[in-house]
Amino acid sequence: MTVLRTSMRNFFAHKGRMALSAVAVLLSVAFVCGTLVFTDTMNTTFDKLFAATASDVTVSPKGASDTGETTADNGKPPVMPASVVDDVRKADGVKSAEGTVFSTSVTVVDADKDSLSPSGGGPTIVGNWNANDARTMKIASGSAPEGADQVMVDADTAGKHDLALGDRIGVITAVGTHRAKISGIVDFTVTNPGAAIFYLDTPTAQRALVGETGVFTNVNVTAASGFSDAALKKSVATALDGGFQVQTAKEVADANAEDVQEFMGVIKYAMLGFAGIAFLVGVFLIINTFSMLVAQRTREIGLMRAIGSSRRQVNRSVLVEALLLGLVGSVLGVGAGVGLAVGLMKLMGAMGMNLSTDDLTVAWSTPVVGLALGVVVTVLAAYLPARRAGKVSPMAALRDAGAPAGARAGVVRAVLGLLLTGAGGLALYLATAAAKASEGGLWLAAGVVLSLIGFVVVGPLLAGGVVRVLSAVLLRVFGPVGRMAERNALRNPRRTGATGAALMIGLALVACLSVVGSSMVASATEELDKSVGTDFIVQSDTGQLITPQAVDAVKAADGVERVTEYKWSKADFETPDGKTSKDTAITAADPTYAQDLRVETVAGDLADAYRPDSMSVHEEFAEDHGIRLGSQIAVDFADGATARLTVRAITSSDAVIDQGAMYTSIDTLATYVPADRIPLDMLVFASAKDGQEATAYQSLKKALDDYPQYTVRDQTDYKEALKDQIGQLLNMIYGLLALAIIVAVLGVVNTLALSVVERTREIGLMRAIGLSRRQLRRMIRLESVVIALFGALLGLGLGMGWGATAQQLLALEGLTVLEIPWATIGGVFIGSAFVGLFAALVPAFRAGRMNVLNAIATE
């Protein structure tokens, strides 16, 4: 009880000094809890939606997925004849059965030809208005579609795009473009997570989506009273006698939920990873805080020991303070996490994904995890300072000698740090020497972890040399004030090392990712210049296949000399060694693709692979299966017959573009796959007539004006798009790393603030002998800047090493260019100086306001 009272007294006596540490714990716990609440809420929202929209039993064609996805390689959903509905109605336990048709492989545009697809990445769904949808949707205005000229739209989409009754829209599918006017606006009775939904009447939906009437993509079955879903499923499956996929409402909902949870899992664990980095950075802040508090209470600890307190009690007293700090920070963090989750939901709403706070889900495990993490991390971080406090002897403490000098511990620390750093460097070297990326990846991971720990451990040793060099370059120009700032930074290398290490971690990751991102862009740019021989590339940025109508528009554009179509198909390969490769991708293209992409061959000529009944394979596949020029492979096309194709070329497996591709001609594909099952184009390449590049570029854009889902790019555009994509990904990662950097800045602020308190008497004496307030504030700011630059220098150096190693692994995949983004690295280094200045604002201000006489009188 005495230990608890002492700890409580000390905690509240130093509550101002504990505040920033508590904020660090709060931020880290808030990020963890916010992530958990946000992802749980997303899952709850989708679970409710899937449960509400699934019929008791759903019948689908064999080609449909478990989740009801309808995207097919030919752009049309898999269908079954309307007679199936009658067969289902005859099954026992069926109250009603209704055929539906819908597709997600669509684009919908308004009268101005602007896309109406959700900006947040949600699906665009076009289907027939049916009784099952009427359970979760209600007509808010107008009426359901009747006839080919009418369409109904969901209220969210109508609101976002200012659509009203009577407005005309176009539905673009593989079949063609169907135009209609809005006859009604329908509202969700459950939360719409961001889909855009359009309804046609049944015959019109069949013609627009499939190209024929009398077919359905699903049959929704309602159970009769007293009939379970499982019993109904069995009854319907028996009535259909195979050939169809039959699922209960739970099975459909679970399959949909599994897909969502898989996607959310990636987001969840990525965000938790960044929260973990913030926790790691916070550890240094807490260690520094308690180390300095223990040092400032040396005499107090000595008195406690002199009146009978044991080492264990002193140790326990410090740990109880850490426990209180962890509890306060964690409790506040849990609450802040819920607020963060709500903020993320609002942000997603602004991006097009609607999430209702009515579905806000705070599982019992969320606050438990937050509290446990915050408390455990704080107590563990305070263990070393607590242990050092317990080692203080009463007489040494009363003489203000403090803890033992620990010279031996310093030597052990330095040796251990150098060994870890050396081991990390060796692992990074082995990563660069690896023959396979998978092997090198393991060495890279080991090298990153070991070198990071090594730099953290050896930080105090590095602080002496690095700070002196930085001071010689930056601080000496400030005269005596600069020299005092240098001595302050060097006074306690362990403290400076820990403070710098907190900033080092975040900046090391920034530097590493910058090097990797820049190298990827530079490598891809070089490969494009070397390999791509076409002038223009037409593709969808959302992964949609290119409709035949759009391809025809490209071919009709002025100034275009040749157009190359490019398709993917799946097939089972039976190779000469008797082995079968299941679901292997085969690329079908026009013969002109050999001109559009200069692929290196190790045997034969790629142009020959486009001859009838011919193909190419890549080098690794050929070696694995004993394939040579002239070998024959039995290719069983997924949607067609089996062909025996002759290998006419073997391509290099080291290519960056189309790596591992195996080619055949579209004519060969068409010989063995029915016309209505031929896959749509993934890409279309176009080359301009000599001297007409500008004309062809503008003509292609105009030709695709009716198809906003596709983009025309020349090689310059393509490089810029690639750079922008990687840049957006990096900016998102930098934004998440900002949390760790904020915590690191709090660490610098806290270190300086506690350092000012620790040097109160010294500051008073300096002021008494003539140091002005302005000079005092400058001294503290310069000390902060040099500590921040010390951390930045270590972090940027370490990160560039990691990035260069990662690039060597990417070189095994063909990305051979190492690009150091010096502008980014320099900007981060200079920005670190401003971080140091910012962190010193409050400590410097407080130091400048000290009363000189009171400061001198401080013991």
Automatic annotation (TrEMBL):
Residue span(s) of domain ABC3 transporter permease C-terminal: 274-394, 736-851
Its membrane topology: Multi-pass membrane protein
Location in the cell: Cell membrane
Residue segments, region Disordered: 59-82
This protein's UniProt keywords: Cell membrane, Membrane, Transmembrane, Transmembrane helix
GO MF: transmembrane transporter activity
Organism superkingdom: Bacteria
Transmembrane segments: 269-295, 318-342, 362-384, 405-430, 442-475, 496-516, 732-757, 782-802, 822-845
Domain MacB-like periplasmic core: 19-237, 499-697
GO cellular component terms given for this protein: plasma membrane
InterPro entries (UniProt xref): ABC3_permease_C, MacB_PCD, Macrolide_Exporter_MacB
Primary localisation category: membrane
Protein family: Belongs to the ABC-4 integral membrane protein family.
Name of the protein in its database record: ABC transporter permease
Organism of this sequence: Streptomyces cadmiisoli
